[in-house]
Structure formats: structure tokens, C-alpha cells
Amino acid sequence: MAQQQIHANHRQRMRKRFEETGFDGFSDHEVLEYILFHAIPRKDVNPVAHALLNHFGGLDRVLEASEQELTQVEGVGPATARLICLFLAVDRRYHQHKTRPVRTVKSLEEVGEHMESLFYGARVEQVYAMYLDDRNHILKVEKCFEGTVNASSVFVNVLSSRMITLGATQLVLAHNHPRGFALPSREDMNLTSQIRQKLGTLGLKLVDHVIVAPDGYISLRQSDRFQSLFT
After folding, report:
1. For position 6, what pLDDT does the model report?
2. Residue whose C-alpha is closest to residue 218's, from 186, 190, 181
3. Percentages helix, strand, coil for the chain, rounded to the nearest 5?
């Protein structure tokens, strides 16, 4: 009973701190403790918070982990894992809503920034396509693939067919390297060339291929090193 009262007092003090200053002044393990309070009642969650940080190597990696990965840590059950995953999912939706929607493309910089925002918090590799008309009006932006991308003719044909269906004449492709750098792999360059060639035979145009990573993004069209992929 005395031990439970100690934990209760500790939680009350942390709630008071959060009410007054938010997470300012909280250490990473205290942030996790506060989150865990809402999933694990009447138990000391300090060891669980430290175990999560030790296992994943940092608060950011904890919040980016999947439910399956989180439940590998002792003391973390399915309900706790779902709660932790919820934070990044909500934050990603908030970030997308706060990003001003682009209706007409005015510059490749604007395109790059918009495409980068789509991958905020993404844990796995994804591909987004932006379809434009002759006047650079955006007809649609959508996720068209999830997982490792390669230069398959099936994927290229899907993109070209989608452009024809939407009445688009221009395409911006974007994909992410969740754990890597904003540089194209050999497969990325092959994919870019194959899409450009396929669209060219149909009188359509690949405007850019944007690669997004934790360190930022790169526009292959704007890069002196990779501009030749578009000629």
C-alpha cells in the first residue's frame, strides 16, 4: 500500500509539472513515463521507460517503432504499444493539416517542400505521385505504392495509365528512405529513367523525382549530378 502511494504521489507531481510547463524540462524517460501512466495504472513505469529507451536508442526511435517491435520490450503489452504508436500517427495527421495545400505548382522548390511533408513520420518506404495538367495545376496527389520500389514495367505502366485516366500531362514522383539519406540508389535512378522514357512515348512528362529522408530531400531534376536522368 505504501509503495502504491509513492507511485501515486510521483504521478501527481508529474501531472502538475505537465500542466504548468508541458514537456519543457522533462527528460526523455520522463516523457515516456508520462505516456505510460495512461496505459499502465498503479505501477512503477520508470523501469519500462528506461527499457524502451535502452532497446531503441532514443525517444524518437521509440515513437517510430511498430506495435510488434514495442511489445518485444518487457512490460509493454499490446494496449501500451498501441498508445505509443498513436502519438506519431496523430502528430503526422496534425502536420499534414497544418501544411498549406498547393493548388498550382510555381516552382520545383515548392513541389519538393510539399512532397516532403507527405512523408512526415513515415516508418516504411512509400511512393507518392503528383499529377499535373499543362498549366501546372495539381489534379491529384496520392500514395501509389508502399514498400521497396524497383524499376518494374508493371509499376511504370500503372503510373502512365493513372495519368491518362486523370487527364494529366505531367508527373512528379516522390519516395522516401526512412532510415537512409536523401540520395538516389542505382535502382532509384533506373526507375527515374524508365518512367521518363515510358511517359515520353505517350507524350507525357516526368517533371521531377523527389527523394525524402530524415536529413531532408533532394530534387533529382534540380541536382547538377542527376539532371541528366531527365534528358
Report:
1. 56
2. 181
3. 50, 15, 35
Q: Does the pLDDT of residue 230 top 60, yes or no?
A: yes
Single-letter amino acid code for the residue at 36: L
Question: What sign has the CA pseudo-torsion 135, 139, 143, 148?
Answer: negative
Identity at 81, one-letter amino acid code: A
User: Given 3.30.930.10, 1.10.287.70, 1.10.150.20, 2.60.260.20, which CATH number is that of 2-96?
Assistant: 1.10.150.20
Question: In percent, how much of the chain has pLDDT > 90?
Answer: 62
CATH fold group of domain 101-230: Cytidine Deaminase; domain 2 (3.40.140)
- N-to-C CA span, the chain: 74
CA 73 and chain centroid, separation: 24
The domain locations on the chain are 2-96, 101-230
Which pLDDT score is estimated for 136? Answer: 94
The SS3 assignment for 128 reads strand
| pTM (two decimals) | 0.68
Q: What is the mean pLDDT of residues 98-119?
A: 84
Q: Do residues 189 and 92 lie in contact, with contact meaning Cβ atoms separated by under 8 Å?
A: no
**What is the reported pLDDT for 2?**
46
Q: Which residue has the cell 539519406?
A: 181
All three cell numbers of 148 = 521497396
